């Protein structure tokens, strides 16, 4: 069965995210390695990185991934923002490497006034630069399929495939699929036929071997809305049955499935979050049921 987990806060230090994952009985984990809404970050203390690696090993959490800052936009034609974004992505990869993470989940960015082809070229050049400057790095850059809001790139499998095609070291890239984003961008996961067609298209255009992680989120908005609004499992337009189908799909039995649903306000405490518990239990119930 897939390994279930959630994005956890690192308030108090990175090892505290592991403690939060443990009390929720997570098997996999996603974190921010820095403040996701700021460009600057304090250097990662070696002792904190070592403590985090030790804690994840002892907890049996695997794989662990980070999510890159939302400020990063490697699709932009703005030269200053582009340089800042490439530097920030490099820092995200370096931090993830120090922590022993599988990869960094990345939103490719928004093209704004640029054409799709121009934005794809910019994305590929930026990815190539970051990877080229880190020839021994084991951490993957995981391109997240997006909901298609505004001019964001990566909302179609064709665009994701083009990003792989444009990077020489594409073996160091992977894909993160978000169930909410899939529905919002027009891939109908809700019917059995639509589910089959979605993953047949992904396999044909991108390749299942490139899929490394799922974000499991229901959607507040319907299919094709192009609006990224996560909902609790079974409470949105996806509903329970598609998640049951996903959890029992043998093609994905080895993959991590990570929640990014709304949490209860915790004020940085390490304690059971009722909303995380509710969503994880919903998935576990589906995992144990064939319907």
- Spatial gap, N to C terminus: 16 Å
The shape, in one word, is: globular
Q: What level of helicity do the residues show?
A: 25-40%
Helix and strand pattern: EHEHEHEHEHEHHEEEHEH
Count of distinct strands = 10
CATH hierarchy, class: Alpha Beta
By DSSP (H or I, 4+ residues per run), the number of helices equals 9
The average pLDDT value, as a whole number, equals 97
- Within CATH, the superfamily carries the name Divalent-metal-dependent TIM barrel enzymes
Helix and strand composition category: alpha/beta
- In percent, how much strand structure appears in the residues? 5-15%
Give the uncertain stretches in residue-range form.
Answer: none
Strand order of the largest sheet: 1-2-3-4-5-6-7-10
CATH topology: TIM Barrel
Keywords:
single chain, 291 residues, TIM Barrel, two-stranded antiparallel ribbon, 14% strand
Word description of this protein:
Helix 1 runs parallel beside helix 2, helix 4 packs across helix 5 and helix 8 packs across helix 9. The chain has a single domain, classed as TIM Barrel, CATH 3.20.20. Strand 4, helix 4 and strand 5 form a beta-alpha-beta unit. The protein has an 8-stranded parallel barrel. The protein is globular, with a radius of gyration of 18 Å. 38% of the residues lie in helices and 14% in strands. By secondary structure, the chain is of the alpha/beta class.
């Amino acid at each position: 069965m897939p390994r279930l987990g959630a994005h956890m806060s690192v308030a108090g230090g990175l090892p505290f995210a592991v403690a939060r994952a443990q009390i929720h009985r997570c098997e996999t984990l996603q974190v921010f390695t820095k403040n996701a809404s700021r460009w600057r970050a304090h250097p990662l203390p070696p002792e904190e990185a070592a403590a985090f690696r030790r804690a994840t090993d002892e907890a049996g959490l695997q794989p662990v991934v980070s999510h890159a800052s939302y400020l990063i936009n490697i699709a932009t034609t703005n030269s200053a923002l582009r340089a800042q974004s490439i530097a920030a992505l490099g820092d995200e990869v370096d931090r993830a490497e120090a922590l022993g993470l599988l990869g960094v989940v990345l939103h490719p960015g928004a093209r704004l006034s640029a054409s799709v082809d121009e934005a794809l070229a910019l994305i590929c050049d930026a990815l190539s630069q970051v990877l080229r400057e880190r020839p021994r790095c084991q951490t993957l850059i995981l391109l997240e399929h997006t909901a298609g809001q505004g001019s964001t790139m990566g909302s179609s499998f064709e665009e994701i495939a083009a990003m792989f095609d444009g990077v020489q070291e594409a073996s160091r890239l992977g894909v993160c699929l978000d169930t909410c984003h899939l529905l919002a961008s027009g891939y109908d996961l809700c019917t059995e036929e639509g589910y089959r067609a979605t993953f047949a298209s992904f396999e044909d255009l991108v390749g299942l071997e490139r899929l490394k992680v799922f974000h499991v989120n229901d959607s507040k908005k319907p299919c094709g809305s192009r609006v990224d609004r996560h909902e609790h499992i079974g409470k949105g337009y996806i509903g329970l049955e598609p998640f049951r189908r996903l959890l029992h799909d043998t093609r994905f039995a080895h993959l991590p499935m990570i929640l990014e649903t709304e949490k209860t306000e915790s004020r940085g405490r390490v304690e059971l979050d009722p909303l995380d518990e509710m969503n994880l239990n919903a998935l576990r119930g589906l995992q144990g049921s064939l319907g």
